[in-house]
C-alpha cells in the first residue's frame, strides 16, 4: 500500500497541473471583464466574490479556521507579498511597460523561486533540473520573441517594478511553503483573499473618490454577463489559492514554480478556442519547450522516488 506522503505528493503534482490549467483559462475571462471595468475594479470584484463565497463556506462549517497561537505576522507578510504586493507592482509596472514586457519578465519567476528556495529553504536542485527550468523559461521567451516582442530599456521604471513583482511572487512561494506547517490551506487562502479584498476595495474607492466617479464602481453590476464572469473568477481565486497552498505544503517551491509556465500554454489554447486567436508554429514549439522543461524540473532530480523533503521553517 502506498504511504500517505507518497499519495499526497502525487496529488500535489496532479493539482499543480490542474492549477496551471485553471489559471491559464482564467486569463481569457479576465480579459473579458476589462470590457466592463478597470483592472483594479475587476480585481476588487473578484476578491469580493471569493471572500463572500469563502465566508459562506466557513459559516456552514465546510472548513474550520483557527488562527489562535499561530504566527500571524508571517501570514500577514505572506498576504503582503501575494496578492497585494504582486498585483500592485504588476499593475503599476504595466503603466510604464507593455504587457509583452510583463510576460517576458514574468517568465523568470521560476528562476527567482529556485534561487530563493535554495537560500532560505535549503532546497537542492540538480544540474539537469536547473537546465530544465531554463528550458521552460526559453520556451516562454521564444514565443514572445517570435511574436516580435522585446524589452525596451527606456522603460526602466516599469521593468524595475515588474522585476520586483517577479521576486515578490517567488518570495511568496518560498514563505508559503515554510508556513504551511502552521496553517491549513483553507486558513492561508481565507486570510489572503480577505486581505486582498480589503486592500483592493480601499484602492478602488480612493481612485473613484478622487476622480468623482464613484457611480462607475458599481455600474458594471447591472450586467448579468459581468456578474457571471466575476463569480467564476472568484471561484477560480478560491480554487487556485487552496490548490497553491496545498501544493507548496507537499512539493518543493523550486519544482512548483516552473508550473507557472504551463499557464502560458493553456492561455494560448484558451485564447484560440474562446477568442479565436491564431496559433502559429512557434506557439507549438515554444509550448513543447515549456512542457519538456516542467517535466525535467520535476522528474530529473537526484532524490529517490518517495523521498519527500519536509517544508523548512523561516525564523
What is the gist of this entry?
The chain is an all-alpha fold. The protein has helices spanning 4-33, 39-59, 72-96, 99-106, 109-120, 127-146, 156-179, 185-211, 214-218, 224-250, 253-257, 262-274, 281-299.
Describe this entry's structure for a reader.
This protein has 315 residues and is mainly alpha-helical. It has one domain. It has 13 helices and no strands. It has helices at residues 4-33, 39-59, 72-96, 99-106, 109-120, 127-146, 156-179, 185-211, 214-218, 224-250, 253-257, 262-274, 281-299. Residues 303-309 have low confidence and may be disordered.
The separation of the N and C termini measures 36 Å
Oligomer: single chain
Total count of helical runs of at least 4 residues: 13
The total count of strands amounts to 0
Number of domains: 1
Global geometry: globular
Overall average pLDDT? 86
Q: Segments where pLDDT lies below 50 for 5+ residues?
A: 303-309
Q: Radius of gyration from the CA trace?
A: 19 Å
> How is the biggest beta sheet arranged?
none
Q: Helix-strand pattern, N to C?
A: HHHHHHHHHHHHH
Strand percent estimate: under 5%
Strand and helix layout:
Elements: H1 4-33, H2 39-59, H3 72-96, H4 99-106, H5 109-120, H6 127-146, H7 156-179, H8 185-211, H9 214-218, H10 224-250, H11 253-257, H12 262-274, H13 281-299
Helix pairs in contact: 1-10, 1-12, 2-8, 2-10, 3-7, 3-8, 4-7, 5-7, 6-13, 7-10, 8-10, 12-13
Amino acid at each position: 500500500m502506498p504511504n500517505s506522503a507518497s499519495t499526497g505528493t502525487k496529488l500535489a503534482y496532479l493539482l499543480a497541473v490542474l492549477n496551471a490549467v485553471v489559471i491559464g483559462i482564467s486569463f481569457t475571462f479576465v480579459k473579458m471583464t476589462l470590457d466592463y471595468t478597470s483592472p483594479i475594479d475587476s480585481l476588487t470584484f473578484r476578491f469580493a466574490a471569493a471572500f463572500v463565497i469563502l465566508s459562506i463556506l466557513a459559516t456552514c462549517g465546510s472548513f474550520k479556521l483557527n488562527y489562535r497561537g499561530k504566527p500571524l505576522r508571517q501570514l500577514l507578510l505572506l498576504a503582503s507579498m501575494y496578492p497585494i504586493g504582486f498585483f500592485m507592482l504588476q499593475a503599476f509596472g504595466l503603466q510604464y511597460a507593455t504587457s509583452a514586457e510583463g510576460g517576458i519578465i514574468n517568465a523568470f519567476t521560476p528562476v527567482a523561486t529556485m534561487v530563493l528556495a535554495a537560500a532560505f529553504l535549503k532546497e537542492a536542485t540538480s544540474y539537469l533540473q536547473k537546465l530544465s527550468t531554463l528550458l521552460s523559461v526559453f520556451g516562454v521567451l521564444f514565443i514572445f520573441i517570435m511574436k516580435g516582442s522585446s524589452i525596451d530599456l527606456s522603460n526602466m521604471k516599469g521593468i524595475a517594478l515588474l522585476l520586483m513583482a517577479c521576486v515578490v511572487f517567488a518570495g511568496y512561494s518560498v514563505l508559503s511553503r515554510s508556513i504551511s506547517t502552521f496553517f491549513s490551506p483553507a486558513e492561508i487562502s481565507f486570510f489572503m483573499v480577505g486581505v486582498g479584498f480589503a486592500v483592493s476595495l480601499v484602492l478602488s474607492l480612493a481612485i473613484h473618490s478622487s476622480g468623482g466617479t464613484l457611480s462607475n464602481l458599481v455600474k458594471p453590476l447591472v450586467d448579468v454577463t459581468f456578474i457571471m464572469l466575476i463569480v467564476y473568477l472568484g471561484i477560480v481565486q478560491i480554487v487556485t489559492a487552496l490548490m497553491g497552498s496545498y501544493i507548496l505544503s507537499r512539493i518543493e517551491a523550486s519544482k512548483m514554480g516552473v508550473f507557472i509556465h504551463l499557464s502560458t500554454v493553456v492561455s494560448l489554447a484558451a485564447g484560440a478556442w474562446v477568442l479565436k486567436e491564431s496559433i502559429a508554429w512557434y506557439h507549438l514549439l515554444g509550448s513543447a519547450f515549456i512542457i519538456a522543461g516542467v517535466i525535467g524540473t520535476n522528474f530529473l532530480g537526484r532524490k529517490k522516488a518517495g523521498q519527500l523533503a519536509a517544508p523548512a521553517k523561516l525564523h
